[in-house]
């Protein structure tokens, strides 16, 4: 079995920055698609934070405008992730004749559209939930918390928030960029069974550090004045630091807009810069739309640049 692939650096237009992504196409002409075990093996072989498989539409649906995808980290399939969604969207939209307007993930269908050359905008699935417990509420602190007293205190007191079931984050606010630079990789793994509420105990739970760096007013494409909040972030789990994390960025922005009730207008724009400390600066845009004090829409935007293409053999 041979599968064509491309790699992209996502949330950047500069090669070798942003977050690398493998985009693997599953041709409709195959006698059978790759198995779950085969897709997992491919993701391990690429050894990137995520690998996304795009299934071509069946031969009897050649004009379909949706594409079903599978998203894998190196050791599991996950329901949704932001940087694979944007990378896959840029790849698909680079062929305008295909007319693709929807990516179907395990978390649900995601409408996508071009947002300029090499850029895409995606309507992110969201089923947000603020969990009752914080790390401080556990019988004993989990291994791998920071040895820096101020960071450790912030980790213990940070809220835990899910953007969808299976994608949860400890949202750790820090006071300065100097404090952000002190965050380090460690064997911390979010204790899902102890920390998350009933019905939510699955998937990933990672640390997402963030610092407020400013607020401005910007003019949206429709001419409306929109508050723009600027943030610097880092996402660190037990295996690695992630250069750009769309799901965590979406979770944080929803938390600020809804759980903290900071958003006073219907729309609020967030501009997040991640990956600076590891030399892979990434630029992520999230826009949250509120309706009757609840989140109505979440849009994630970013650029991606192609780095490689080839064929893999299974």
UniProtKB/TrEMBL annotation:
SUPFAM superfamilies, alphabetized: Diaminopimelate epimerase-like (SSF54506)
Pfam families, per the entry: PhzC-PhzF
Coiled coil, from the record: none
Gene Ontology CC terms, in alphabetical order: cytoplasm
GO molecular function: isomerase activity
InterPro entries registered for this protein in UniProt: Phenazine_PhzF-like (IPR003719)
Active site: 50
The protein, known as: Phenazine biosynthesis PhzC/PhzF protein
Organism from which the protein derives: Cordyceps fumosorosea (strain ARSEF 2679) (Isaria fumosorosea)
């Amino acid at each position: 079995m041979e599968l064509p692939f491309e790699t992209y650096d996502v949330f950047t237009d500069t090669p070798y920055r942003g977050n690398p992504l493998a985009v693997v196409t599953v041709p409709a002409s195959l006698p059978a698609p790759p198995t779950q075990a085969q897709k997992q093996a491919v993701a391990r072989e690429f050894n990137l934070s995520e690998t996304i498989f795009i299934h071509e539409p069946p031969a009897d649906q050649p004009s379909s405008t949706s594409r079903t995808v599978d998203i894998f980290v190196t050791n599991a399939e996950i329901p949704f992730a932001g940087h694979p969604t944007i990378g896959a969207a840029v790849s698909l939209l680079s062929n305008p004749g295909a007319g693709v307007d929807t990516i179907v993930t395990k978390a649900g269908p995601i409408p996508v559209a071009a947002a300029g050359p090499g850029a895409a905008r995606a309507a992110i699935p969201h089923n947000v939930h603020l969990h009752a417990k914080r790390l401080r509420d556990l019988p004993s602190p989990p291994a791998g918390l920071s040895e820096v007293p101020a960071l450790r205190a912030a980790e213990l007191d940070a809220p835990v928030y899910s953007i969808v079931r299976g994608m949860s984050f400890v949202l750790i606010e820090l006071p300065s960029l100097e404090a952000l630079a002190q965050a380090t990789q460690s064997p911390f793994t979010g204790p899902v069974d102890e920390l998350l509420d009933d019905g939510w105990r699955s998937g990933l739970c990672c640390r997402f550090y963030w610092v407020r760096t400013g607020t401005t007013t910007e003019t949206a494409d429709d001419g409306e004045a929109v508050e723009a909040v600027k943030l610097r972030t880092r996402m660190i789990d037990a295996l690695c630091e992630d250069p750009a994390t769309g799901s965590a960025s979406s979770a944080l922005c929803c938390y600020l807009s809804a759980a903290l009730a900071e958003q006073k207008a219907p729309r609020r724009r967030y501009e997040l810069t991640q990956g600076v400390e590891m030399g892979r600066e990434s630029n992520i845009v999230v826009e949250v739309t509120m309706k009757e004090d609840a989140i109505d829409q979440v849009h994630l935007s970013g650029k991606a640049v192609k780095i490689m293409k080839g064929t893999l053999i299974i």
